[in-house]
Amino acid sequence: QVQLVESGGGSVQAGGSLRLSCAAFGYSWNFNSMGWIRQAPGKEREGVAHIDSDGTTTYADSVKGRFTISKDNAKNTLYLQMNSLKPEDTAMYYCAASPFYKMVPVVLEKYKSWGQGTQVTVSS
Q1: Which of 9, 41, 54, 80 has its CA 20 to 30 A from that of 74?
Q2: CA 33, CA 12: separation in Å to the nearest integer?
Q3: Mean predicted confidence (pLDDT) in 71-76
Q4: Contacts of 40 (CB under 8 A, 6+ apart)
Q5: Running DSSP on this structure, what letter comes out for residue 60?
Q6: What angle is formed at CA 20 by the lines to CA 17 and CA 25, rounded to 5 degrees?
């Protein structure tokens, strides 16, 4: 059994930064690729960033150049550095893991493990 726990969310002014963390507890043999997904009320879930087992990263156009996904294998932790935040970035952010080694394009249904989410609120 594997559990994902996000942290680092909060409220920030437009133009500010936040760093989200996702800690994995348990045996993560099937965590071959991981990603961050967000959902605002009344909106569809959106894949924000993804990192494959070899370190290759993929970003949604809306966040490219502002967000950076990374991982620390020794700590079993996934990160999302968010800079130049905009009010449109306000959403619940989830981390998720997939058994697939490569997932381009990203298919949300291929993520098999999900965290509980952390709220990010950006004010103007």
Answers
A1: 9
A2: 29
A3: 87
A4: 90, 91, 92
A5: -
A6: 170
Looking at this protein, which amino acid is placed at residue 54?
Answer: D
DSSP 124: -
Rounded to the nearest 5 degrees, what angle is found at the Cα of 20, between the Cα atoms of 89 and 15? 40
pLDDT, tens only, 90-122 = 999 999 999 888 887 889 999 999 999 999 999
Distances (CA, A) of 19 to 24, 28, 103: 16, 22, 24
Joined tokens for residue 99? 């058994």
Give CA–CA dist 25/1, Å, rounded: 8
Distance from C-alpha of 67 to C-alpha of 63, rounded to nearest angstrom:
6
* Residue that the structure tokens 């950006």 belong to: 122
Residues in the chain: 124
Distance, in Å, from the CA atom of 67 to the CA atom of 44, rounded to the nearest integer, reads 20
* Six-digit token string for 70: 């990374």
